[in-house]
Amino acid sequence: MNGVTRPQSPDGVLRLAVIGAGPAGMEGAVRAADGAVAVTVIDAGPAAGGQFHRQPSPLLHALPPASQARLPSWSPSWLPSPALAPHRAGRGWAALKSRFDRHVAAGRVRHLADHHVWFAERAGGGFRVHALVGPAQQSSIRVDADALLLATGAYERVLPFPGWTLPGVVTAGGAQAMLKGSLVLPGREVVVAGTGPLLLPVAAGLAEAGAVVKALIESADMRALLRPAPALAAAANPGKLAEAAGYAARLAQYRIPVRSRHVVVAAHGGERVEAVTVAALDALGHVLPGSQQRISCDSLAIGHGLLPHLGLALTLGARVEDEPAPAVVVDGEQRTCVPALWAAGEASGVGGAALAQVEGEIAGRSVAAWSRGPRRAWQDEDHARSPAWTSAERRRGRRREFFAALDAVYARDVTWAERVDDDTTICRCEEVRAGAIRRVLRDDAASDPRTVKLLTRAGMGWCQGRMCAPAVAGLLAERSAARERGGAEGGGAPGPSALVSSRPFARPVPLGVLATLPPDEEEGTDEQP
Amino acid sequence: MLIRLRFGGTPRRPAAARPGTAFALSVDGERIEALPGHTIAAALWRAGIVSWRRTRGEARPRGVFCGIGVCFDCLVTVNGRPNQRACLVPARPGDAVDTRAGTGLGGDET
Prior knowledge:
Chain A has 529 residues and is of the alpha/beta class.
């Protein structure tokens, strides 16, 4: 950041573009606007809130039922919605929304809902953001800004298994999003499976909506959650652990059988899922022979944790790390290594809605401080003296520690690849099977995700590698381990970000939109009225 | 191509909502009902339809997977426009959803 002159719009007001209107983006926008920055929030959702605060469509006139699932504050921030829950998080959301709405009403924050960002570039000392408009996505607009905050959130990681492409197999968060946003269920008899804190509220929510949850299959040892390790207990306040324990009670209330240290090894069916086979894991994470059991169901909600959206950050040249978890690298004020580019929320490391919001607060205040003069930082202004900084930094630290301790309970599934036969589809878009990928790895034709993509088409489809990147990384790790066992140097397998990197566009763009862009790129006006 | 569940896809206890009047849209010419505020995917799920696309390589059935617009598995033709993400596009009265055209290959618009 040092040495960079703050760009200035003609009227002297710093323009900030925020991508994403979840907890991080909203709080960042509010704090920047508090500091007299002109903010434009660009978000794909029809309303502000992001995935965590997903609202049922207002047209459905949903009422808050007293029995609505209470979401823990450590829920992943893309987990749809405590909006219906009359509790702490609900009040926090109301306050955030009201502060956000006030700025929008006053014209200090411009909220572009239903705008899908497909490209961001450096331009004229600042940034230019391009977004497709509305569900039709027939036209594109551009937003010019002096500073940019990436609050792009996360999506669900799913590790493939035989049958995972069958209709009725949906991501756990997707099932919850459809339920909360539109009040519909994928089926009547649901198995919830995978790993991570998301599964508990998803199972409870589906049961509450009337689905029969046949089983909750968690590969981690859930006793570690209910009888928390010292690190978790130390990092948490008692209320949070009570929330976790509350879930045990709710699962019991709906008679949901919970199987910890179990995995779904296959989904069965012709035209849709009709059953799943689950199996127990031994102490080392291998399937216990003879433990397989078939459970009939008409849908499977599955998830293995969250992955942040990193595409725009990579395009803009921000440093991204894969270990310990995929994230944009930021400093204490949520600044990336790219001048005038901030990142907050899941983008700078998955950690839940509460963490995302305080990161947004820090980023927004940092932008505001920067707007007051070049080379200024919030910390420089009032770091040591300011209770605001001390408080924000403390809250962020606590929430990061808590999520790290929680995450440790849900240890990584290191034995996943051995449960994937060569017939298993890895890339859903291009229908590339594990065998095809293993072949190019075995022949040493490829040793990185990009070459795998070029040789097999895995990651080349519509989703731009987002769905298959973790699996491709897992197969690379499998090959690397085999080479090490064979005496060769394994070399660290590259992480999933390698598959989504170096893409100019963040999402598929109709050719018609590109063809109609005039040479001066005046896609459309983004001038304020 | 349409796969219907034995049961409808509406929560058994939708008492939490007072949706507006249901409206009709068509799926391959067949009438289904949707509620105001539904996406195309939600309307299909509510009608018990979980699959509405065949993959272009192996002709496998697909429907909603991620539910939030990331995976592009739920692509469908709406009112003649191919490759719309059913989980994002709002359902409107009179919409014509066509599952037979959806190969994922796309038409001239993509």
